[in-house]
Amino acid sequence: MRIECIAIGTELLTTRRLDTNSVWLGERLARLGLAFHRKTAVGDNREDLAELFREALKRSDLILATGGLGPTFDDFTKELFAEILGAELVEDAGSRADMLAFYAARNRVPPQVNFKQALIPVGAEPLRNPVGTAPGVWWEDPPGHPGVRIVLLPGVPREMKRMWEEQVEPRLRPLAGPATHTLRMVVAGVPESTLDERTREVRERHGHLDWSILASLTQVELLVRSEDPAALEAVLSDLKPVLGGDLAAVGEANLEEAVLQALRARGETLAVAESMTGGLLAARLTAIPGASQAFLGGATVYTLGAKAALLDLDPAWLGRVGTVSEVCATALAEATRQRLGATWALGLCGNAGPEAEGEAPVGAVFIALAGPEGTQVRALRLAGDRGDIQLRSAAAALDNLRRSIIARP
Amino acid sequence: MRIECIAIGTELLTTRRLDTNSVWLGERLARLGLAFHRKTAVGDNREDLAELFREALKRSDLILATGGLGPTFDDFTKELFAEILGAELVEDAGSRADMLAFYAARNRVPPQVNFKQALIPVGAEPLRNPVGTAPGVWWEDPPGHPGVRIVLLPGVPREMKRMWEEQVEPRLRPLAGPATHTLRMVVAGVPESTLDERTREVRERHGHLDWSILASLTQVELLVRSEDPAALEAVLSDLKPVLGGDLAAVGEANLEEAVLQALRARGETLAVAESMTGGLLAARLTAIPGASQAFLGGATVYTLGAKAALLDLDPAWLGRVGTVSEVCATALAEATRQRLGATWALGLCGNAGPEAEGEAPVGAVFIALAGPEGTQVRALRLAGDRGDIQLRSAAAALDNLRRSIIARP
Question: Does B254 touch chain A if contact means CB atoms closer than 8 Å?
């Protein structure tokens, strides 16, 4: 089955809007043993959209389109598909009732523009929207295209996801292929090309599998896909000795989750004091449900005054030793560990840019880890823009902690 | 000029990797008065990639491809374009020297796999990579396709951006159309469909312009594009009275930047105490360069113990009043304001899920704002998953603050 994804919206071509929907859909397809052969984004332009719809009807068996179902003037996905396929739009009573109920529950009356959302092409089925007002469309064997399935989903991620899980996935399951399993290994603290070289021999030994390497600022992922779970287990046992302590996680977890799991397994806790990462490390940890079982909290001590007020550090002394220094990072970690009574505390300071601060060049970062056996501190020089440096610092701090946790008996 | 973007990498079809490159490129094209007519993502699959390259060579004048230039086994963009166009690859001495210098500066020797990156198709020009090891390619009038331009860029965002700015944009500038200007208005605290209705009359009056509405969890953007800056100024002066205090920013700023600017303009400061947002609000503020001029820092008081240790709140008393309550939010804001000596302090507590905590259902959030005229607190019930609720809470807190700042004389 050839499956293609169409994401609709001029914002996807010109502004800072990321198409996260198609990424999510790609993952869900993989669970069914299905995959996109391509994903295309087009603008809210009738001509471009019509051209793409016509192409897609020729080359694909399943077309998943997101966006353009809303109430506003630039939404016309449903109307255009109906026009191309020569189908009329008729009001679906259930969809209209759903919308009225949605607004009634919020003590509001639907704006008049919203009523066009209840229109559905003749021959198609509406997909109910329990968390929004735009119903989706499931259209099997549309006029002139037997065997083709068109699925129109809202562009709002929450609505799209819920509709997929409750109404689209169950309809697709009978068509699913043999499920593809993915072995995902998260490696921290190793550059992508080094990982490539170190794993080459094992990759060649299992060369019939589908391999990819995926580097980000915080970690490198090694992915292997196969229909045979035993083949993936063999890969993992071959790679474990090669990767050693650099293997941070296996499965769905990222570095943050791996650290929280390791802490929880040992009944240990973590607190942080962040200067130049300004809360990013804490936010990445608390994004994970259940983080509070191991992560206690911390101080965002972005300014000298905050370091004094929240951690009782002497501003005059800080001024002398420098707020971008090993000594400062150590003081942040130790004061935080003591104050919050945590097993471990991380202290981060540095200059994330965009300009040098006194003697601290952009990218100079100090990470201290205070733990049961004392405090160790690392000096880093990181590349990239402000966001990159903040993210790399947070990841380096977490990886330090991870290695220290697993190094203890 | 028909311009298309091709993003290459299986990870773009199947896993959690977002194609941020094409979004950035779309913005840069807009500055030149150029735009993508479509963007496509394909996997590291020779057949799919070759099919797309052949199509693109037929329908587009400029092809911008990102990814697949790296050293690893799944990188073959350059090789495939060369094969399709019948061009040989030859080693470019400059690219080889750049790569050796890149590694030498880091006291490393390039892994053998890296040398294939210095190969360039005959007839094409290499684009130097000052921040990485993969050179790009600028290929004008490739064999059999006069008038076509192919630009191959690395997939690593930092490398792609630098190469674009220094080498691609200057080459494209002579081809640029009349520059398109964008009027971007950020509206906070108003749902998308309400904004649609409220702005309809003004939109109709300026119906010849290119309008779009873009909602996210934290704000709604209203975008208008035109080649005529005066037309956009007329739109803005028509919309200002309609939007009133809901208009948070005009231009490139988001809600966070608008708040920091308003604080700086008044010489005021902000501190935060975050329970269920766990550092997210602080991180969003400190992502902005120069945030420390107005943002002092704060406490990530994710646990009861942290609330006691960092803000001296009595744990027994907190247990009685509840850690998800108006009283708790107020105490967080007031203690933080006093301790950090800030003009304003925000205190956030709530339950972001995934499960109810005692009597606090998922989505129950309290936001307190302590300021020069006392403390006000708002109770919210937010929808969505854990990440949505955290993000919506942070945005609601900032918007409360923004409205309070502008309300003062």
Answer: no
